[in-house]
Amino acid sequence: AQPLVESGGGSVQAGGSLRLSCKMSKWGYARRCLGWFRQAPGKGREGVAAIYGGGEIYYADSLKGRFTISRGNAKNTVYLQMNSLTPEDTAMYYCAAERLYVRTWYEPDAYRYWGQGTQVTVSS
Questions:
Q1: What is the number of other CB atoms lying within 10 angstroms of the CB of residue 9?
Q2: Cα dihedral sign, 45-31-23-89
Q3: 62-88 residue pLDDT tens
């Protein structure tokens, strides 16, 4: 089974909201950290937000106040609530998990497990 599966992407107009979900086949995959990343066409993978096993939460500075990462009641699901979306938020969004050590949450290489991504498209 896929270790991580994202859902919730879609097409919205600017100013709209989406909530992405990342479901883990085993909670232990993200025992240390679960991160959300995004990648726009022609750009590198960018860290969006992360939640550590101890509850610490981090966001990309440019997204603070608009995006919120949270855990569901079931440990194996993490959400990314995205509000006030702009066309610049258009990208493929991925969740990534690591059960051991993550020193820098926004570094893609720190994560062992990845989902296949969910597309978010924001039109003006």
A1: 18
A2: negative
A3: 998 999 999 988 778 999 999 999 999
